[in-house]
Structure formats: structure tokens, C-alpha cells
Queue: 2 jobs
Job 1
Amino acid sequence: MSTDTTDTHTGGCLCGAVRYETSGTPHIVAHCHCEDCQRFGGAGHSTGAMFSEACVQYDGAVGEYTKLSENGNQVTRTFCAKCGSSLFGRNSGMQGFLTINLGTFDDSSPFAPQVTVFARNRKGWDVMDENLPAYEAQPAWKPDSGD
Ligand SMILES: [Zn+2]
Ligand SMILES: [Zn+2]
């Protein structure tokens, strides 16, 4: 990943109605195998880059769906109101941050996943990079802890 803090990245949904721009580098890029990500995305895991909310701007009509996570946090998923592409996630346990689904970037090649979470729910057919650190569930770290 680049360490240039003036980095700008753009992306959007499948139909083009929602477009976004980010500045800076993500706090973390993670694969998530939780059941909700599997159901929402229809795949074995989601992959997201977490940015400070202030570093993300978007345009276009979106829909939102909020559900309580296992540990009682409100997880809000944002998707294009027209084509349904899943774009962003927010977690009430991590205020001020927004996770962008990596596949929606125009060019996701500068990003590299650093960690896998909810590995306990990984399906046998969803083969992952064994070298990535994996957590059974959501680790206790906070993205602003400076680690
Ligand atoms: Zn769309
Ligand atoms: Zn998840």
C-alpha cells in the first residue's frame, strides 16, 4: 500500500448512480467471513477497506439496512438504491469509520488485505491466504489504537 497521505481513490456501484472518492490510506483492509457479510454479499466473505468517515465523500441515492451484530453493535450497510451494489459498512462500535467494499473501487490494486476476521465461520470452499493473521471473531482492536 502507498503511504502517500494525499492519495485519492475513486469508485462506485455497478450502475454508476453512486460514486465516491476517498483521501488518504485505509486504517485496515480486512476479509470478513461473518454470516451477515456472507448473506448480504452472497459470497464466502466480504473484503473491506476502513477509512475515517471524514476521508470519504459520495454522491447518489443510497439505501441503508441496519442490524444488530452478535456483540450488540449496530451495523449499517449502505447500498445503491438502484442496482443494489453493496458499498459501505458502518459499525456503532467504531464510530467515525466507514468500511468500503474493496471490489467497488475503480482500481483496487493498491490495497492489500492485512487480516481475516470471523474465520470461525469460513466455509471450506472459500480458500484464503494462509499467511494472513486470522481472528476467530471480531478482534478487540480499535482502528484508532495506533497499532
Ligand atoms: Zn447503482
Ligand atoms: Zn462481516
Job 2
Amino acid sequence: MLSRSLRPIRIIKALILLCAVLQANIGWGSETPKNLKCEVAIIGGGPGGLYSAYRLGPKLDKRVCVFERENHLGGRLYDEPLVPGGPVHGVGGLRVMEGQDLVFALANELGITLEPGPYVDDMISTRGVFAFDTETLRKEVYPLVSESEAALYNKLQFGPERANVASYPDYRSYVRSVVGEEQYFFLRDILRFRGDYTYPLDARGYLDWLDEETNVCCTGYFPVGGMSQFPLRMADRARQNGVRIFTSEPAISINGRGGHYFITTPTYRVKATRLIIAADPTGFKAVTGNIARRIQAQAQFQHLTGVKVATVTQWFPRSWWNNLVEGRDVHRAWTTEACLNAIEIPKDKYDADQLVVRTVYSDDRDCVDFWEITARENGIEAVEAEINRGLKYLFPKADIPKPLKTVVQIWPAGWYFLGAGSDFTNASIAAWAVRPLPGEAVSLVGDAYHPQRATWSDGAYKSAINALNASYGFDIKYTRSGMSSGPTIKASRLNSLPARH
Ligand SMILES: Cc1cc2nc3c(=O)[nH]c(=O)nc-3n(C[C@H](O)[C@H](O)[C@H](O)COP(=O)(O)OP(=O)(O)OC[C@H]3O[C@@H](n4cnc5c(N)ncnc54)[C@H](O)[C@@H]3O)c2cc1C
């Protein structure tokens, strides 16, 4: 037995051993941050950050650095395979719409093939009735509503009350007041995106956005290799030009001093001359330091409202979706009656060949929480059982096999709109983001900072272009419809209702 006097030595030895073990296994205590100098530091390796890096690469080569929080690039353009190395399907963004010229041009530049997946046979179910068009639902389910969906949107967008839109507390109250209570429920129930009615969104911002959205018609196009092809190929091109891209390196703090910016990440202490913050607001909120805090304190930043979104993606051993209803194929369906909310069966060849289906697509607050809690507390089997129940409700005759794989993805903020009570317009937020701190070489980049194109990656690219044009000597042009505070689209365009993904 050891004497008492020897015990402290044993304890110290044990502590040294423990430190060595922790150091070897998890890197604990091993590092003092490495110093790194970059002329431009880009925080966030999503579409906005990587577009910036891709364009800056040829000008500034290795003087550009990108720091991404996750162990992969792409942000909300993220795809999953059934098996490692196999074809992939999006658990975030899926498509490019016909009117998105900028994204088509980018696909061309990056060598990305886009396959069409035209929208036909969309089925809607509300209050227990199923239909392939909103007029049938209006007549059968909402008999008090005497005008069509298109006519109601026409009133919202082009009626006289639009001139007073800024005086409404939020979009919901504007709709209720302009078209009436039952019409409100009709429009809400037939829309796939229930978040538009469950979050308090700024009425003026939403309508400005809708002006442009109605221009984004008509056919969806799907990239071979998934939407992640955009960020991944931009990252490859940027690297070829020398840009340094670091993954698993979240910005923890951003400080400014003496005309320089200091970013700390788990591994690096970065000194930069210019800064592009391309982290989405939800990620950026966690960053400390005087520069980060000054931006977060501004009203413009605080009015950006994130909408929580759930997707569930399932691969099946065989297709079960031919002649689903009355001898018709159904490729998209949405319902108020089940938390699936919306499902989507791919039509483009690349995705259709995978026998994959997005069986849940929801931005309804309660339903997103439901999927999150079910997956966490009860596991994937419970999620699969609940999805099967919802699919049986939509397609009672379908013989649905057990899926081979189910991926539940919760996006804490799938997209951002301008929140209610804001004094800002979409255009003024985009202008602010170019230089949120006067006198500082700092830009905010991302779809959130360009609410006019909320919900689409082209918003992230347009935001990056604004920053590059204003502060980096570029002159990149893009079509900018609906950026004024008033209606810019003629009523005759309303044959095409909001496209939306
Ligand atoms: C379910 C869903 C469906 C969608 N469908 C479509 C669609 O069909 N078509 C379409 O065009 N768009 C679609 N979108 C929108 C599209 O995904 C976004 O517009 C786009 O990803 C925005 O790019 P971003 O660079 O602004 O932000 P993000 O994609 O969010 O990228 C921001 C990056 O910053 C990183 N980050 C955050 N904090 C930090 C930090 N502290 N340090 C370092 N890095 C940080 C994040 O990890 C992320 O990689 C969809 C989105 C969702 C959620």
C-alpha cells in the first residue's frame, strides 16, 4: 500500500495521463489557434458564399478564404444518396424555375445539366375533398367564395388597397381585410406553403416578393447530380484559382480593429482586410465579437424572419405511383389533412430513376415540430408509420412498400422573409446588406439578405452580385423585377400563379 505522501504525485501523474489521452483522442487542449492571413474572408460555404469565392478567385486567388461551419459545403442546397457514392436527391433545394435566367446561365457556365419536370397532375386535398384544380375545390368546399384564386390574387396584388399595404400589421391581416374571411381560408388552404400564413410576415415585403414570384413561371428544372452541384462546382473552380476553403471551421467571433478583421474559428485566428458574411442569420446569430454584435443589433437584421421547414426523403424498392387516382399519375399533392403537408414524386429522369420521393414537405410550425419530435423521441420507424398513414389518406388504393431509406431533415430556418412590423422594404434590406456598417469593408450575402427572392437560391446569388458590384469592382447584371415598392407586373400575367418550389 502507498504512503499518504505519495498520493499527490500519483494524482498529478494520472492527470498528465488523462490530458495525453484526451489530446490524442479528441485534440483537447492541444491547440493554440494558427494564424492565417486572408485579404477577403468569407464566412459560410453555402451558395452565396461560394458564388462570391468563385467570382473572386480569378482576381484574388489564395488571398480569398472561405470558412464553413459544417463538414460539407452547400448550405441548404444539400443532397443525400441512397448508398454512399450513388445518385443523390435533395433534402433542401431541388429545382430551378424556368424564369430564373441567372441560375440557368450559371448552370451553363458550370456545365450542369438541367432536366425538365413539368408540373401536371398536381392534386390538392382540403376539408376532405380531393381535386386537380382550385376551382373545383372553391365550388365544392368554399361555396361562399365567389371569385377564383386568380381573381383574389389580382385584388391582393393590384387592388386599390395595395397603396395602403404598409399600414397593415401583417400579410394575414391584409388578406383578411382585402378579400374577406372565407376567401382568406380558401387561399390559405390551397397553398402548399402554410408558413406564409402561420408566421407574421410583413405585408408589403410579401407582396413585393409575390410580384416577382408570379414572374417565375412555369416549368421546374432539376439538376443532374442535385442542386448541390451548384455550390460544389463553384467550390472546385474557386479552389482551382487558389481560393482556400476550410470546412468544419465555424466563425466563433468576428472583431474589427485598426482597419483589420479578426475571425476566430476552432483552428485559426484569421486576419482579413475585407469580410463577406455569407452565414445565414440563424447561424450568424451565434457569432460573437464587436463586428458581429453591431450587425446583429440593427433593426434590419432583427426583422429577418426565418421559417422552420421539414423535409422527409424516402427511397422505395419499387414505384407505387403510377395511375394513382382515377387512372391519373400524381406527381405533387398537398393536403390540409395530414402533416405530410406536401409530397413530390420526381418527373425528371435523374431523380425518377432513383425511385425516391419527398414524402414530407412542410413549413407549418406545428407539423415541423411534430416531425422533429417524432424522429427524435420515437425514431425512424415511427416517422415511416406516420408517413404511410398520410400517404394512405391521399392515395387509398396505392400499394406502398416499406422504404429502403428515410431521411428526416429539419431546417431551423429553411427560408427568410421580412417580418411584420418592419419599416423596411425588400429593396432597402438588400441595399443595407451591401454595407451594413458604414465605413467598414463588410458585406452580408445570402438569400436572407435579399428578401425579394426569399425561398430561392437565386436570391443568394443576386445578393452576392450586389456585394461584388458595390465593393469588389464587378459589373455583373441580372434581371431585377419587382424591386420597387409598388406592383410592377401586369394583371394579365396572373394566369401563372405563384410558382414556388
Ligand atoms: C426545403 C428547402 C427547399 C428549397 N428549395 C429550393 C429550390 O427548389 N430552389 C432554390 O433555388 N432554392 C431552394 N431553397 C432555398 C435555398 O436552399 C437557399 O436559398 C440557399 O441555400 C441560400 O443560400 P445562402 O448561401 O444564402 O445560405 P445557406 O444555404 O444557408 O448557406 C449558409 C452557410 O453558412 C454556414 N454557416 C452558418 N453559420 C456559420 C458560421 N458561424 N461560420 C461558418 N459558416 C456558417 C452554414 O452552415 C451554411 O453552409 C430551398 C430551401 C429549403 C430549406
